[in-house]
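Give me structure tokens for this 109-residue protein.
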Amino acid sequence: MENIDNAVKKLIKDIPGIIKLLRQNKGNEAYTEFGNIFNELNNVMLTFINAIPAINSMGLDIPTDVVISQLNNMVEGFQHKDNVLLADTLEYEIMESMKLYDEILMQIQ
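Here you go.
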């Protein structure tokens, strides 16, 4: 559990810099940075998705389909080099999921 907790905290720290680069139209630099965290971010999101049924059994109501949609939007923005879609998805969807997952991880430790 400690490894996933560290990964979530690192992503919460790293993602805002990528969002800033995307918003400044520094696409090459942003996509390089995003490429550096993509596998870890994807793994954390998939771990979160797989944990949702157990989390929901503790009384929360996290819709799995919404988190899957966030992951799909992120991948689509990255694949199409769509700065706006990727920045918006990272800022308004992925970061919120990461923060929620971080809170949940802190409560269950």
